[in-house]
TrEMBL record:
Membrane-spanning parts: 6-21, 28-50, 70-88, 95-112, 118-135, 147-168, 183-205, 217-235, 241-259, 266-285, 297-315, 336-353, 373-400, 412-433, 453-473, 547-564
Keywords: Cell membrane, Membrane, Oxidoreductase, Transmembrane, Transmembrane helix
Cellular component, GO, one term: plasma membrane
The keyword Coiled coil belongs to this UniProt entry's keyword annotation: no
Entry protein name: Multisubunit sodium/proton antiporter MrpD subunit
Subcellular location: Cell membrane; Membrane
Domain NADH:quinone oxidoreductase/Mrp antiporter transmembrane residues, every copy: 111-382
Main localization category: membrane
GO molecular function: NADH dehydrogenase (ubiquinone) activity; oxidoreductase activity
Membrane topology: Multi-pass membrane protein
Length: 565
């Protein structure tokens, strides 16, 4: 039996059911929707195309191939894990927003044309912002507004690029575009880059993700950026400049993550670092590189989600998330600490963990493609991510100094969600061929060679040694309360100060102009009043009233003109 139901429709219907129900029925729907959606996806005819006509355009609401199917499986899995993790959430709106958000991501990856992609691109922004607002804090509200502005801006740029491309080519097909020198391709590339977290366009991610609810961050880490990676892989595979952009993305977040105190913000920077590996792979464009980028996107959703879940559990139990406030929590939350360590080992690419079997595909592809400097950059980034995500996150949250905080272990539903993610991290690391069989291109790559295992083990060992020495000699940046900003200093620090300086400089001049204007008006009013006021020359009760005077003047003028003409 085959299905012909678009995957997003099940999630949208599920969101409505979640919003209208409560209690255990609502919890059952949260779990049932991604399971039913996955069953629908398994029975879908991949050759099927669902079309519809709007005005003179034929839109493809559903179109599948191996790449979109892999992202479809991934998003169903992420929605299931996120749903289980959020079962203790009392707000129907937050749970419904998560379901709508997952459905929008599915709609985007199965979009067969650019207009359909744009619609779901915007729905991603609208639905996800409620996951930030649900936190209910002033900081969350401010971050949500900035997040919404950037996401809508990305949509406007995307729509402009689509319309320009349609005007030039008459096509709205969602396929390979490439940077062909046209403004349309550049705008579409820029729109994808904003959501993918390109350097200097990434601040919405580090600004908003740490301000979302514990469950909201898990959803956020899975969908928006991965839809952007999918779109880049679909439209800009083999675009050379992506190699350089991706290399920068892998490196610059390391420095900010090391000095950051908010551990969820550390993970946000770490996400940009991992997205960089995927962008490099897409830029290289070879079969091995593309497989590496897409398989790393799959693994990143799982292990990054696991790390966000562990930090969300800490925040849920302690109300704190800064490294300077935590420590010693392994005594109260040993299971959460264990799952966090598995996530840390996976993102650090330890042998037998998921990151090891996907990240290395991109690095090998960089060497084979003649990019040794990019390979070195990725090697440096691999060591850096071990520092800030592999060591720093579990060390400062669960070990380091004893903060004295004693709390309960994470709720059961959170532990189950973390357990599922941890099991997938280990399974993909031990037996990667199940994941490899789903990739869009044939895989001719063996991750467990002696050279690769030894090289990676040495890298991790020396990176751990460097961290230990830096801590012993008190060189490692201390965890200090505060907010670190990077390029967002332009609008969070520079622009407000420029505005204040502008007002301070030009305020006297402004006051002078306004005073001069008021004086001029006062003088004018006085003159008019002197001539036309109750005691004015033209308004006095004299034998010759002003009306008679003006009539006489006009009569004389008329006679003069008549006489001379």
């Amino acid at each position: 039996m085959t299905s012909n139901l678009a995957p997003f429709a099940i999630f949208y219907a599920g969101a409505l059911a979640i919003f209208l129900t409560q209690g255990r029925l609502r919890q059952a729907i949260v779990i049932a929707v991604p399971i039913l959606g996955a069953l629908n996806l398994f029975t879908l005819d991949q050759s099927m195309v669902i079309d519809g006509r709007v005005l003179d355009l034929t839109l493809s609401v559903f179109k599948a191939d191996r790449m979109s199917m892999l992202f479809g499986y991934l998003f169903h899995l992420a929605a299931l894990i996120g749903g289980i993790y959020s079962l203790n959430v009392k707000k129907s709106g937050e749970l419904a927003a998560g379901m709508l958000y997952a459905g929008s991501a599915l709609g985007a990856v199965f979009a067969g044309d650019m207009i359909t992609l744009f619609v779901f691109w915007e729905l991603l922004a609208v639905t996800s912002v409620f996951l930030i607002l649900a936190r209910g804090t002033t900081r969350a509200q401010s971050a949500a507004m900035r997040y919404m502005l950037i996401q809508v801006l990305s949509g406007v740029i995307l729509l402009t690029g689509i319309l320009l491309r349609y005007a030039a080519t008459g096509s709205i097909a969602f396929g390979h575009i490439g940077l062909d020198g046209s403004l349309a391709s550049l705008l579409i590339f820029l729109a994808f880059g904003i959501k993918a977290g390109f350097p200097l366009l990434h601040n919405w991610l580090t600004d908003s993700y740490p301000e979302a609810t514990a469950g909201g961050t898990v959803y956020l880490s899975a969908f928006t950026t991965k839809v952007a990676i999918y779109a880049l892989a679909r439209a800009f595979a083999g675009t050379e400049i992506l190699v350089d952009i991706g290399a920068v993305m892998t490196m610059f977040p390391i420095f900010y993550a090391v000095i950051e105190n908010d551990l969820r913000r550390v993970l946000a920077y770490s996400m940009i670092n991992q997205l960089g590996f995927m962008v490099v792979g897409i830029g290289l464009g070879t079969d091995l590189a593309m497989n590496g980028a897409i398989s790393h996107a799959f693994n990143d959703v799982i292990f990054k989600g696991l790390l966000f879940m562990s930090m969300g559990a800490v925040l849920h139990r302690t109300g704190k998330i800064n490294g300077s406030d935590l420590g010693g929590l392994y005594k109260s939350m040993p299971k959460t600490a264990f799952f966090c360590i598995i996530g840390a080992a996976s993102i650090s690419a330890f042998p037998l963990f998921s990151g090891f079997v996907s990240k290395s595909m991109v690095m090998v592809a960089a060497l084979e493609g003649g990019h040794p400097w990019v390979w070195l950059a990725l090697l440096f980034a691999s060591a850096g991510v071990f520092h800030h995500a592999g060591i720093k996150i579990p060390f400062f949250a669960f070990f380091a100094h004893d903060s004295g905080i004693r709390c309960k272990e994470a709720p059961t539903n959170m532990l189950i969600a973390m357990g599922i993610s941890a099991a997938i991290c280990v399974f993909n690391g031990v037996y990667p061929w199940a994941l490899y069989s789903l990739l869009p291109f044939p895989v001719d790559y063996a991750p467990y060679t002696m050279t690769h295992v030894l090289t990676q083990t040495q890298l991790l060992f020396f990176s751990a040694l460097a961290f230990t020495l830096l801590k012993i000699f008190h060189v490692y940046p201390p965890e200090l309360p505060g907010i670190n900003i990077d390029s967002d200093w332009s609008y969070r620090w520079l622009l407000p100060r420029l505005a204040r300086n502008f007002v301070h400089t030009f305020a006297p001049l402004d006051r002078g102009f306004r005073q001069m204007f008021r004086n001029s008006v006062t003088v004018l009013v006085a003159v008019v009043n002197r001539h036309h006021g109750p005691q004015g020359v033209l308004a006095r009760a004299t034998p010759a009233s002003s009306m008679v005077l003006w009539v006489l003047v006009l009569l004389i003028a008329y006679m003069g003109v008549y006489f001379f003409t």
